[in-house]
Amino acid sequence: MELESLHTLAPTEEGSPLWVTYKLLEEEGRYGILCYLEGTAPRHPWARARLADLCPTREAAESLLRRLARGKVLPAHLPDLVWELL
């Protein structure tokens, strides 16, 4: 179930920003994150990342979601960065 969404503009190497969406997900009392680039085909591996079962509390998951949005983390970097943050 989707609980919250955040959006941010992230810079690209080409200089044109892309909208990135971060969604807080809840499944069976555990929280995860979905991150994707707006306006790109979801079949591209770098355009979407989903990590389930990251946090035991909603507060911890919301804090992580806000940190990712503030840092303008792209989906391709989400798995590595989240594991460093946790």
Overall 3D form: globular
Strand arrangement in the largest pleated sheet: 1-2-3-4
User: The biggest beta sheet, please?
Assistant: 4 strands, antiparallel
Estimated radius of gyration? 12 Å
Q: Given the helix and strand composition, which structural class is it?
A: alpha+beta
Low-confidence stretches: none
Order of helical and strand elements: EEEEHH
How many DSSP E strands? 4
First and last CA, distance:
22 Å
Q: Mean of the pLDDT scores?
A: 88
Relative helix content: 10-25%
How many DSSP helices? 2
User: How big a fraction of the residues is strand?
Assistant: 35-45%
Structure description:
Strand 2 and strand 3 form a beta hairpin. The chain is built from 2 helices and 4 strands, in the order E-E-E-E-H-H. The protein is an alpha+beta fold and 86 residues long. 24% of the residues lie in helices and 41% in strands.
